[in-house]
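Below: protein 1.
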Amino acid sequence: MTACNGATVGTPTYGPNGGGLNNFVPFPSTNLWNTNISGAAIDPNSATLMTQVGSATKLHPLFGQYASDGGIPYTVVDSSTTPLVGINVIDYATESEDVVAPYPGGDYVAIEGDPTDCAGWPDTYIGDNHTLVLDRHTCWIYETFQTNRCNGLYDADEEAIWDLQNGEYRPYGWTSTDAGGLSVMAGLMKYDEAASGFIGHAVRYTMQDTKNDANNGYFVEPASHAAGGNYSAPTVEGMRLRLHSSFNTSGYSAINKTILTALQQYGMIMADGGGYLFIQGATDPRWNDSDLGNLDGIPASDFDVIATTPTYPGWDSV
């Protein structure tokens, strides 16, 4: 892992993400996001769970060249030169850090979906509207959800701060800008790492439903929060899937092979509600959407569930 100061501050554009990371990987190598699980035990319930996920469920990359592809952008800043502004957190203030943040004025900060400034002001939902602002000076990242910006002011429904040099987690029961209480940045695929030939971390994925109970469902490590919506759903927040080692990657491009190898070595972690088996990356104009489309359609049956901590279905959210 290189120092966070290796991250470069970019130009004020939506992409390529307002800066580069120069191979910096969020969190230490001991963090569960960055743990190689190619030899990890398969959960004894795996076959049943993946059957319940369904043969019709296919892998889908929800990211690409353009904001409309569904990816989540990030912005790199330097708080030693960037003025701090307040963020008004609305719905989940009790599970958010109460801070000012190095969010530049104007429309510098890239917002998921690239909404028009003031379009949802002050608190109208027009999309998940994540922001990820990495401060290379402190090596902290500020993540917000349902972000609305107007004339340099920011509102958000939830905000979480992560110290990227430490392997920290949210308090149990706390959400984050992901339903699983996880860092969004930690699980995003970035173009530079895919192009380098190695992705050394798990990838975030979503499912439309997660297993529910009377207390809002279940979660397993590394998640800290549950968001159950269906009593019969097989998946829980934090559940890790691994692509079969026997999966043949020979017919794919070099970048897609890198992504598939990461899914075999590091797997993907259930992080949020959304489409079935949607995997997420950072928006970047250097992605080739047509090529990424070749990943579309790998069936759920090509994945196993890795043994969970605690044993599946995990901790009740209470």
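Below: protein 2.
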Amino acid sequence: IVAMAVLTAPLVEEVVYRGVLYPALQRRIGMHLGVVGVMLVFAAIHFPQYYPNYGAISTIVVLSLTLTVIRAYTGRLLPCVVIHTIFNSASSVGILLEPYLKNLQSLTEQPTSSFLPLLLSTSPVARLISYLF
């Protein structure tokens, strides 16, 4: 699944949404409405995958808007594919590391008596850093 998300999905989705759909919409309804149209279609397709995580849905909307604007202003698809690949790679690494960070979080939980340990205990990444150092 990670290989598909990182290697194939960005290429296929960029070709479909910003390589085919965007130019067609741009010719019909103009650049600005074409950008909005592609953003909405891309977000709608991903909505069932991420519902009810509105943070993830918002991120997908911003990603789609960014990629479509890049396509609109550069006229190139390659930057979109590269950015989409990086985004999916980072997301996949986060998903793969999440169980380990949760285990690490439970190992480092201890009573806090000062502000600094409390601050460090607020996020898994901060806990990882405090555990390592």
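The CA atoms of residues 6 and 89 lie 5 Å apart.
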